[in-house]
Amino acid sequence: MFPAAATSNTPISKLPFYFLLTGVVAFLLLNVILYLGIPSFIDGNVRGPVLWTAAHLTLLGWAMMVAMGAMYQLVSVALQVPIYSEKLGYIQFFVYTIGILGLLHGFFWFQPSVLVTFGILTVIGILLFIFNMCKTISMMPEQTYISQFILSALVYLFITILIGITLAANFKWSFLGEIYQNLFYTHILTGVVGWFTLLIFGFSFKMVPMFSLSHGFGETLPKRMLPITHIGMIATILGLFTGFMILIVVGLIIVALNYILFLLHVKDILQKRMKKKLDVGFTTAIMAVLFGLVPMLLFPLTLGFNLGNRLLISLVYLFIFGWISYSIMGYMYKIVPFLWWTKKYSDLIGRANVPLLKDLMNERLARIIFITTAIGLIGFTIGILASLSSLLYLSQTLLLVAAILFTYMVFEVFRK
Amino acid sequence: MITEEMVMQKLYEVYDPELGINIVDLGLVYDVLIEDDIVNATITLTTPGCPMHDSITAGARNAILQIEGVKRANVELTWTPAWNPEMMSERAKNMLGRA
Ligand code: HEM
């Protein structure tokens, strides 16, 4: 028997809490702002101040905040190396948060100078994060497919924010000309598919077996997936820039194929699990994979057969809110109690009775929240598609109520 | 006299906070060695890089130290042999819903 590394990798630090709690506040706010965006969904013109604000509040304020917080906690766990610099993490948090606040202001009131200035701050905040993560990953004695997924995701993040700031600069100085449109579509593709989707994949490879207590599943699928993703992404981007629709469609089909491989891998893990009853947070994360499957399969068809702008918008909505945001909600249900438990009870274990993780969350309330959210998401997607204003308002009301309860549930953990 | 039984008895009180099952039934305790008032235990975890890494190791140490007469408890974490579900007791398997 060889002893495992004796060093402690689990930092009991406050850093992840800063990110996660700021993320939850953004989550609440974005559900309010989306009301203001409903008229834009109705008239099909989604490229305007309100939805730019809503999109970036969702992706940068909520999803990215939580992703960063979770990474500061979980990278050390999933990859078994300590974070390169905690201090840089704090600096990064403040730069990033101030950046986003100004960025959102710039989008909402359409003030290009503010957008560019704070956009630069946001980009610096993210660059510091990328640096910190790359340094951390480079300390691993040997790369695994999980760390390679995370590195690839970080590369797409890098591309996304560089394009983002270029687009913002163009609002002010108008220097890009026709290439602007291509960059815009690439920005969305690399952001939501390249960065968020690969990141969630990477973490799921570790989390899904851990939460379901699964052993003996195959690992060839995930090892094959990464090159396929890159081929699909590069083909799509080349298509976007050269204007060859066939290349875009083929690229997106490859990306969709890759998503199906992910689904098959998750299915394999779950079939070999020991823990029969999965909790509601974890079930939600799995449900999110199914939500994401719909747009993944329909993107190539929608573009290839030109099925219309409205369908495309509803699919992008479902992808961002049903896949990215809903997965994050589900994983929050696992991550927050874990962090709090580690902070408050890990010293007491073995000495006194300590609560279990599931005692920290109200499972019944959570079930109501996640089901209400799912109904709201489906309703909103159909609302965009059918241009039904009343359905959009009704669905967004469900989503807002669920978001309020979700915020309450997360803050309640800290009282236990 | 400290016996292995006393140690195991105490380790039954250390729970995996995620699964809600104690570490003995989970089959995580590989070895217990007693030399006078020093207890050496070797344990594993269900997954390398389990987030409960430190908590469970510390929990086992705390529990052993509560036994009267124990001066020192060394808890060593090992990944070899790797844990597998067959190491669980019938009781643990039942609790997970898979006998
Ligand atoms: C992970 C990071 C990011 C993601 C996933 C992302 C995603 C998106 C999405 C989905 C849109 C479309 C919104 C709409 O049409 O209503 C968009 C537009 C835009 N983004 Fe980002 N974004 C990110 C970061 C940034 C950053 C850091 C900037 C820098 C200032 C930025 C600048 C822009 C601009 C200027 C537009 C508007 C383009 C237009 O409609 O003409 N983005 N982004």
Automatic annotation (TrEMBL), chain A:
Keyword Transmembrane in annotation: yes
- Can you name this protein? Uncharacterized protein
Record field: transmembrane: 17-38, 50-75, 87-108, 114-134, 146-171, 183-205, 247-266, 278-299, 311-333, 365-385, 391-411
User: Which keywords fit this entry according to its UniProt record?
Assistant: Membrane, Transmembrane, Transmembrane helix
Show the taxonomic lineage.
Answer: Bacteria, Bacillati, Bacillota, Bacilli, Bacillales
Q: Please verify whether the record's keywords include Transmembrane helix.
A: yes
Q: What is the protein's species of origin?
A: Ammoniphilus resinae
Domain of life assignment: Bacteria
UniProtKB/TrEMBL annotation, chain B:
Tell me what this protein is called.
Metal-sulfur cluster biosynthetic enzyme
Q: Which residues form the MIP18 family-like domain?
A: 4-76
PANTHER family per UniProt: FE-S PROTEIN MATURATION AUXILIARY FACTOR YITW
Return any one Pfam family short name: FeS_assembly_P
